[in-house]
Amino acid sequence: MKKVKTPFDYMSSSPDRYALLKAYARENRQKMTLAETILWNELRALPKTFKFRRQHIIGDFIVDFVCLDLHLVIEVDGDYHQKLQQTHDDILRTECLNRLGFNVIRFTNEQVIENLQEVIREINNILYNE
Q: Quick check: is 64 in a domain?
């Protein structure tokens, strides 16, 4: 994936929400799911060319993982993402992140836990081939 050289002006949230989002992101980092922990360990092991952040604020969202240089967001979805309202919210969230210039890819907890090598293969295809 080609690096995008732009200022990271999208990283700031609404001032009235930032403190809340920051606290929530910190809590999320301390209480990651098993699938998030497994994937985080894999992302940290990638070459330093690809610096990922976890539970990072972009606009008014907290994304699971992001490589800012590549504008790549990776989300790991638990069971509640299967609910109709959450599925709708995820679509809107992805559209907003796309408008900010981010490519968003999603995996389920089950994919990460049960088929990690396929998940890593898909991420590597994006990192090295686009």
A: yes
